[in-house]
Amino acid sequence: MYNIFKTSVPHLCQVIILSHLKTCNMNTTEIEGNMNVEKGELKQKFALLTDDDQLLDESKNEVRLGRLQVNLGKTKEELYKLYLGI
């Protein structure tokens, strides 16, 4: 009986997440931007633990890029083209 409930839990979580995304009207660039923000913040915490200044700088740039993705709705490549003039 435990196995029946165990297999249904991930399915219920997926349904809840998908329904939340549909109600929030998030597109893929916003989702990717949120992922970049979270990943950058996690890298910042790891960089502070290991005293790695280079990783800290990279993670701050990643957080900025993720926030720009969410706010502007553009991909990484489009943002690089805007700021680097490529």
Written description of the protein model:
This protein is mainly alpha-helical and 86 residues long. It has one domain (2-84). Helix content is 87%, strand content 0%. The protein is built from four helices and no strands. Helix 2 (28-50) packs antiparallel against helix 3. The longest helix has 23 residues, at 2-24.
Distinctive features:
86 residues, mainly alpha
Characterize the quaternary organization of these chains.
single chain
- The number of helical runs is 4
Order of SSEs: HHHH
Q: Which parts are unreliable, with pLDDT below 50 for 5 consecutive residues or more? A: 1-10
Helix proportion range: over 70%
Q: Average pLDDT, to the nearest integer?
A: 76
SS-based structural class? Answer: mainly alpha
Q: Note the beta-strand portion.
A: under 5%
Total number of distinct structural domains: 1
Span between termini: 59 Å
CA gyration radius, whole angstroms: 17 Å
Global morphology:
flat
- Number of strand segments: 0
Q: Sheet bearing the most strands, described? A: none
Task: Provide a brief overview of the structure.
The protein is an all-alpha fold and 86 residues long. It has helices at 2-24, 28-50, 53-72, 76-84.
List the helices and strands and how they pair.
Elements: H1 2-24, H2 28-50, H3 53-72, H4 76-84
